[in-house]
C-alpha cells in the first residue's frame, strides 16, 4: 500500500444520500453483529424500519464514519443515528414512515416468499416498538450504532458516541440510551466497558449512558 492510498477515516454528518450505504451496513450487522444477508428476502425492510426514519423524520440527527483514500471514492464504514426525543420520533414514524410500509408488506398474510426474519421485521412495522416509559423518563434520547468489522475495535464507536453526547449536551440533555440484541455479546461488553449502565426490562436489553460518566475520548 502506498502512502497516498492509506485509509483516512473521519466522521461527518449523515445525509439522505447515505441511505443506501447505511442500509447495507445495517444488513451486514443485523444478525447480532454479523451479516443477515442470507436471512432476508426483503432486506429493504431494514432500511424502512431502522434507517430512513432517522434521516427523513424529525427530531433526529446522525453521523457516519467514512474512509476517504486520496485516489478513491468515499466509503461509509459505520454510522450512528439518533433522536433527542424518543416519544416524538415514535409518533412521527407512526404517522409518516409505517403506513406505506404496512400496505406494501402486509402481515395477514405475509408476502408468500418472506423469510422468518422478514416476518419479524414486518411484525415490528405493524406493531412498532414502544420504549419503556421509565427508560424514556430517565433519558428521552436514544441511538442506533453499527460499524462494519474492519472499523471495529479501533475507537471509532466511542468517537461516534462522543459526537452524539456533544450534540445532546448542546440541547441541554444529560443522558442517552441504546437497545441491543440480547445475542450480541460483543455489543453488551462494549457498552458496559465505556460507562453505560443496564436498564432492566423483561424482553429487550437497554443500556443508559449518563453524561456525567462519559470520558471524552480525546483526553
Automatic annotation (TrEMBL):
Signal peptide feature range: none
Domain N-acetyltransferase residue range list: 77-218
Entry GO MF terms: acyltransferase activity, transferring groups other than amino-acyl groups; beta-N-acetylglucosaminidase activity
Cross-referenced Gene3D superfamilies: 3.40.630.30
Domain of life the protein comes from: Eukaryota
Single GO biological process annotation from the record: glycoprotein metabolic process
Any Pfam family hit: Acetyltransf_1
Protein's recorded name: N-acetyltransferase domain-containing protein
Protein's organism: Rhizoctonia solani
Highest classification ranks of the organism: Eukaryota, Fungi, Dikarya, Basidiomycota, Agaricomycotina
